[in-house]
Write a structure and sequence with these properties.
Low-confidence stretches: 57-72, 238-246
Helix content: 25-40%
Order of helices and strands: HHEHHEEHEEHEEHEE
Distance between the termini: 160 Å
Structural class: alpha+beta
Largest sheet: 5 strands, antiparallel
Mean pLDDT: 77
Protein name: Sporulation domain protein
Organism: Sterolibacterium denitrificans
Length: 251
Amino acid sequence: MTLFWRIVLLLAIFGNLLFFAWSQGYFGRLEDGREPLRIKHQLAPEKLRILAAAPESSAASTAPASAAAAPADEAICRLVGDNALPAADAQRLYERVQGEATVATGLQAVVKPIELPPRYWVHFPPLPSRELVDRKLQELRNLGITDAMPMLGDGDDHFAISLGMFSTPEAAETHLAAMQRRGVRTAVIEKRARTAAGTTGKAQVEVRGPQALVLQRLPELLNELGLARTHVADCPETSGPTKDPTPPASP
């Protein structure tokens, strides 16, 4: 075979290969890249939606916050009576404060009857005779205790010796412990009810409400009830125990 025919044969083979490759789509098809074919290859072409571009968001202008409301008028408590207001007057004041005309304004009242809490007595129990009382007092003076008081009146406390009266058991126990450190051995603590002599029918009234209203209206109410001279003070806080140097009176 001559060189010419060899070249022709090679070109024919090469042409057949090109035709085969083209027919199999190796060089792409005419409809490739067209819109129908792209839509055909989509997973769900029927769900395709063209959305308009969202408008640019503008910074929202916020109105300045209104100034905070002024705090409510501070509530206060005033104590009327100072342990000396007759119960009938206390009731009249209570009824005026709690009346319909003042309830709407925020005033409130509480009647507090005089109640005397018990006291706690540190003492030596009654001794058999005056001679033994004098001897015990001398022993106490030798220990540096000079404020002991003998109970010489009639009654169950006759010939007892008082070392102090206290408003709480803790204060009484503290005092007794101090006496024991100084050598006292037989003193005891006894809870004693307080007599309310002179307090029968007495009461106090607590008046609570907005400060401005209480300070203005309470004096007006007291004046209207003829109680303008009645003692008025702030409601007291709980106070600590205090020692009452006066021993109980013998019944």
